[in-house]
Design goal:
DNA damage, EC 2.7.7.7, DNA polymerase IV, 5-stranded mixed β-sheet, alpha+beta, cytoplasm, about 20% strand, DNA polymerase, domain 1, 4-stranded antiparallel β-sheet, Dna Ligase, domain 1
């Protein structure tokens, strides 16, 4: 993966000094954080991933948490959203049930997720990425692919050094860290970014791709989860190297289109380009309850709170939606989805909520629910949203009241003002 000789191109990630002499530490500043690779200055495709993103933001904002195990999540019915690297030492992992996480690390500090804060920080990081190249393809709030081919003249540096400068800038200006994977294709750039977390910078070149992948488990390949890995193991296939020896036609005969993916990715063949993502198709919010809820009266304030979150995101993103979607999951994990198309698009929590409770009322027949969510689809430009309603004459007053509440929340915080639906309620979530 990386080399370490005097003839191998490299630089120091801390002071950016070129490394012309052999050694494990920077000749200029003494740092051990060197990156060397034969193909270092010829690779242009990167995957950038923020390290333990939610937990890192919380530690940034509260220095007292710096050395403590931190879990972002909550509720005995919930799961771990993110665990810091201290908590991971104890075996805590993302998507682990909270009760298991606390069994593994009872001293952990548990913090409920603050998505508004994380979205804001994620946008700050994204804006810095877009200063490097217009070809930024986000995968989530805290990771993205970047194609930096052709940016050398713009930054007066090859992509590898530009990425190292970016990592230093994020750490200095935003206060969190990132890990970078640099390669010639998406698959290996993503693999590389996971190799040396946190604050990693790993390189995988074309010449070493096959040998690098050979000893690795088949789960390294995108799309090979536990279930499919078990299928492969039943067929005697555990490593990528075994896939490399098999004929693509045979793999396709056994596993369909997934067989072709196995064949190509096992050999480091990935022709997908970095491209701008399609626009979002929906905006939604949901919550899982501590204890199952069946009563309509208890579900209403939760639905109102979620509707306000959806409306806030629509307004901040300058979009509207025309179809309201209610999502519910029963105590036995069966999902129910109900939707209703509005005559006109909306950005208003009031309209989302009122449509949602009409759908909700038909579902509250004594069934116990463990999750509820509300959202909108059919997203569009907001210019046609929420025209005056000549039938519901009070709708204009409610819209004006909502606008006034939005201003107060923007100025003083989201908890500044509440509606009668949510005020004083104890949310079971």
């Amino acid at each position: 993966m990386t080399a370490n000789s005097a003839k191998t191109p490299g630089f120091c990630r801390d002071c950016l000094a070129e490394q012309k002499a052999e050694g494990r530490r920077c000749a200029a500043c003494g740092s051990p954080r060197l990156v060397r690779h034969d193909e270092l200055y010829g690779l242009t495709l990167a995957h950038i991933d923020c390290d333990a993103f939610y937990a890192s933001v919380e530690k940034r904002d509260n220095p007292e948490l710096a050395d403590k195990p931190v879990i972002i999540g909550g509720g005995k019915r919930g799961v771990v959203s993110t665990a810091c690297y201290v908590a991971r030492i104890y075996g805590v992992r993302s998507a682990m049930p909270m009760f298991k996480a606390l069994e593994a690390c009872p001293q952990a500090v548990v913090i409920p997720p603050d998505m508004e804060k994380y979205v804001k920080v994620g946008r700050e990081v994204r804006a810095m990425m877009q200063e490097l190249t217009p070809l930024v393809q986000p995968l989530s709030i805290d990771e993205a692919f970047l194609e930096l081919g052709g940016t050398e003249r713009l930054h007066n540096d090859p992509p590898a050094r530009t990425l190292a400068k970016f990592a230093r800038r994020v750490e200095k200006e935003i206060g969190i860290t990132v890990s970078i994977g640099l390669s010639y294709c998406k698959f290996l750039a993503k693999v590389a970014s996971d190799l040396q977390k946190p604050r990693g910078f790993s390189v995988i070149g074309r010449e070493e791709a096959v040998s690098f992948l050979a000893p690795r488990p088949v789960t390294t390949i995108w799309g090979v989860g536990k279930a499919f890995a078990a299928t492969l193991e039943a067929d005697g296939i555990r490593t990528i190297g075994q896939l490399q020896t098999m004929d693509e036609t045979d793999l396709m005969r056994r596993y369909g289109t997934m067989g072709q993916r196995l064949s190509r990715l096992s050999r480091g063949i990935d022709d997908r380009d970095v491209h701008l993502n399609d626009p979002a198709k929906s905006v939604s919010a949901e919550t899982t309850f501590f204890d199952d809820i069946s009563r309509y009266e208890e579900l209403v304030p939760v639905l109102r709170n979620l509707s306000e979150k959806v409306a806030w995101r629509l307004k901040k993103s300058d979009i509207a939606g025309q179809t309201v979607v209610l999502k519910m999951k029963t105590a036995d994990f069966k999902s129910r989805t109900r939707n209703r198309k509005l005559e006109d698009p909306t950005q208003l929590a009031d309209r989302i909520f009122r449509t949602g409770i009409e759908l909700l009322r038909k579902e509250t027949d004594g069934t116990k629910f463990r999750l509820i969510g509300i959202g909108v689809t059919d997203l569009c430009d907001p210019t046609r949203a929420d025209p005056p309603d000549l039938i519901d004459v009070q709708s204009g007053r409610r819209a004006a009241a909502e606008a006034a509440m939005d201003k107060l929340r923007d100025k003083f915080g989201k908890g500044t003002v509440e509606t009668g639906y949510t005020f004083g309620t104890k949310r079971n979530q």
